[in-house]
Specification:
The chain is of the alpha/beta class. Helices cover 39% and strands 19% of the residues. Helix 9 (267-279) links the parallel strand 10 (258-264) and strand 11 (289-293).
C-alpha cells in the first residue's frame, strides 16, 4: 500500500499551445467560439442529482458585444440554497470515506479531458464570458486548470505521506480527515481556473462544497460542471447556485455545519465575510477555515541600472494583458529620472501598436472589461486624471461602451506618489507612473512599501545585485509573490504558489500543498502494543 503513494501520474505543467496562424488548435478554437456564440444556453442550478430551473432568470452577454445574448441562467431562492446545503451534507459521508486514490482519479481524469476534448470548449467559453483573447484563455482556462488538478493530486499524496516518528513499542500516525460540515466556495469572474480550484481543492481532500460562481462567469462555469460530470464527480459533492450574493451568503454562513470558505474577490467583501463568520461563531459546530485571496495594488520598481526595454515590456504586459483585470496586474510603477525620456518614447511607440476588440480576432491584444460598472469606474478615474493638476495622461485615456466595454490602454504620469490612482485598486488597463530622482532609489522603496494596504504581487528590475538584495529586504512584506526582473503576473501552479498578505488575503498559496492543508482536520493516533499494568515509575524506588 505504501508504494501506491508514488503511483500518482507525474505532475508536470501543461504545455501552452501557440495558436499561431495556420495551427490546428487555432482553427478548432475559432470554430468552437463561433459555434458557441450562435447557441443559446440555459444554465440550471446543480443540486444533488437535480438540475433545477427556477424560472427566475437573468441573461448572459459577452463584455465585448453586450447586446448579444449567450443564454440565461436560473437564480436560486433561499429554499434552493438550503436544499443545496442539505444535498451536499447528504453526500458527505460516502465522499469522505472514498479512498484518496479514487478521489484523485476523478480530478486527474478531469485534467486529461480538459487537455483533450474539452480544451477548445473551455477556452471558447472563457473568451465569450470573460472577454479573454486566445492566449489569455489558453493559459487560464486550459493550462492552469489542468495544472491545479494534476498538482493537487500530487500535493494530496505528499500530505498523506507526512507521518510522525514512532518509538519502540508504539505506532504513531497522522490521519488527515476532511472538515466537518461543508465548505462554501465563492469564485471571481477573472480566472476560470481559479473558479474551478476554489471548490476542487477542498473536494479533493474529501470535503463537500456549495459553489457560488460570479454572475459574470456563469457561462464558463457551466462548462466546468459538464467537465466534472464526465469525469465522474459524484452528485452532491459540489452543489452550484447563482443569484443574490447577500442572500446566498447569509443562508450559508448562518448554517451550523458551515466549516469554511474558499474565496477570491474583493477585499471589502472578504472583510464582510470574516465579520459575518465572527458574528455567527456560536452557531457553528467548528471554527471555520477562512481562506481568501483578495485585491492588489501591484507594483513595478525600476532601479537606475535596469534595462529600460525590459521594464517597459513588463509594464505593457503586466498592466494591459487581460485589460489589467488579473489580481496580479501592474497598476503602479516607479521609474528613475535618468530612464524616463527613453521609457516614455518606448511606451508610446509600443502601446500604439496594441489592437483592441473582440477575442474572435486573435490579432487583438486587448479586449473588453467585464461589465458596465467596471467600465464606468475606470472612466471616472480617467476623467479625474484629465482634470488633475498633479497627473497627466500621456497615452490612451479613451473609452467607448457603445458595442462593448472597451477602455484604451492608459498611462498616467503623476508628480504625486500618493495620487489616487497610485493607491486605489482600479482593476482595469490603467497604470500610473511616478518618476523619481535616481539618487533617491532607497527612499522610494519606502514609498512603494507604504503606499498600499495590499501585498499581493510586485516586481523589481535591476542589474545591480546589491540593489536587488536591498530591495528584496525593503519590500519583504509588500508582496506575497515577488518577481526579480520579470513582470508581476503569470504565476504558474507548482512553480510560484500564489497569494498575498495585508489587504490581499490570507496568503494560503493556491497551487501548493499549503492550500490543501487548510481543508483537512488532523487526527493524531498513538497505538501502544503492550500497555503497562503498573502505575509505578522507576523514580519511585
Amino acid at each position: 500500500m505504501a508504494n501506491a503513494f508514488f503511483n500518482v501520474p507525474t505532475a508536470v505543467n501543461e504545455p501552452v499551445k501557440s495558436y499561431a496562424p495556420g495551427t490546428p488548435e487555432r482553427e478548432e478554437l475559432l470554430a468552437m467560439y463561433k459555434k458557441m456564440y450562435n447557441e443559446q444556453v440555459e444554465v440550471p442550478l446543480y443540486i444533488g442529482k437535480e438540475e433545477i430551473k427556477t424560472g427566475d432568470t437573468a441573461t448572459m452577454h459577452p463584455p465585448h458585444d453586450h447586446k448579444h445574448v449567450l443564454g440565461t441562467y436560473h437564480k436560486a431562492s433561499k429554499e434552493h440554497v438550503e436544499l443545496a446545503i442539505e444535498k451536499a451534507l447528504a453526500a458527505k459521508e460516502e465522499w469522505a470515506n472514498t479512498s484518496w486514490e479514487h478521489r484523485a482519479s476523478i480530478f486527474i481524469k478531469a485534467a486529461e479531458l480538459l487537455a483533450g476534448p474539452y480544451r477548445a470548449k473551455m477556452n471558447a467559453a472563457t473568451m465569450l464570458a470573460q472577454s479573454k483573447n486566445v492566449f489569455q484563455a489558453e493559459i487560464d482556462a486550459a493550462c492552469e486548470m489542468i495544472d491545479f488538478f494534476r498538482f493537487n493530486a500530487q500535493f494530496m499524496t505528499d500530505i498523506y505521506k507526512n507521518q510522525p516518528e514512532s518509538a519502540p513499542g508504539m505506532w504513531n500516525r497522522m490521519e488527515y480527515r476532511p472538515l466537518e460540515g461543508f465548505v462554501y466556495a465563492v469564485s471571481p469572474f477573472n480566472f476560470t481556473s481559479i473558479a474551478a480550484n476554489l471548490f476542487a481543492s477542498p473536494a479533493m481532500m474529501g470535503n463537500v462544497c456549495v459553489w457560488k460562481p460570479s454572475d459574470h462567469q456563469i457561462y464558463s462555469a457551466k462548462v466546468i460542471v459538464d467537465l466534472f460530470k464526465e469525469a465522474g464527480l459524484p452528485d452532491g459533492v459540489v452543489t452550484v447556485v447563482y443569484g443574490d450574493p447577500v442572500m446566498i451568503t447569509d443562508t450559508v454562513m448562518t448554517h451550523k455545519e458551515f466549516s469554511g470558505i474558499h474565496f477570491t474577490g474583493s477585499t471589502s467583501i472578504f472583510k464582510s465575510l470574516w465579520k459575518k463568520a465572527g458574528e455567527n461563531m456560536d452557531v457553528y459546530r467548528t471554527y471555520p477555515r477562512i481562506v481568501g485571496e483578495t485585491g492588489g495594488k501591484d507594483f513595478i520598481w525600476s532601479h537606475p541600472s535596469a534595462n529600460m526595454e525590459e521594464v517597459g515590456t513588463a509594464i505593457i504586459r503586466g498592466a494591459f494583458e487581460y485589460q489589467g483585470q488579473k489580481c496580479s496586474a501592474a497598476s503602479r510603477a516607479y521609474v528613475p529620472a535618468s530612464q524616463w525620456d527613453s521609457m516614455k518614447a518606448f511606451l508610446e511607440r509600443e502601446i500604439a501598436t496594441i489592437k483592441m476588440g473582440s477575442p474572435e480576432d486573435p490579432s487583438n491584444f486587448m479586449n473588453a472589461v467585464i461589465h458596465e460598472g467596471s467600465f464606468d469606474k475606470l472612466a471616472s478615474y480617467i476623467d479625474g486624471a484629465k482634470a488633475a493638476d498633479d497627473a497627466e495622461i500621456i497615452i490612451g485615456g479613451g473609452y467607448d461602451k457603445s458595442v462593448g466595454y472597451f477602455v484604451e490602454p492608459t498611462v498616467i504620469v503623476t508628480s504625486n506618489p500618493q495620487y489616487t490612482t497610485m493607491c486605489t485598486e482600479l482593476f482595469g488597463p490603467v497604470i500610473t507612473i511616478y518618476v523619481y530622482e535616481d539618487a533617491d532609489w532607497k527612499e522610494i522603496l519606502k514609498t512603494v512599501d507604504a503606499t498600499s494596504d495590499y501585498a499581493l504581487t510586485g516586481a523589481i528590475f535591476s542589474k545591480d545585485r546589491y540593489a536587488i538584495e536591498y530591495a528584496c529586504k525593503a519590500l519583504e512584506n509588500a508582496a506575497g509573490n515577488f518577481y526579480i526582473n520579470d513582470k508581476p503576473t503569470g504565476a504558474v501552479v507548482g512553480q510560484q504558489p500564489f497569494g498575498g498578505a495585508r489587504g490581499s488575503g490570507t496568503n494560503d498559496k493556491a497551487g501548493s500543498v499549503w492550500n490543501l492543508l487548510r481543508w483537512v482536520s488532523n487526527r493524531t493516533i498513538k497505538e501502544t502494543f503492550v500497555p503497562p499494568t503498573d502505575y509505578r515509575y522507576p523514580f519511585l524506588g
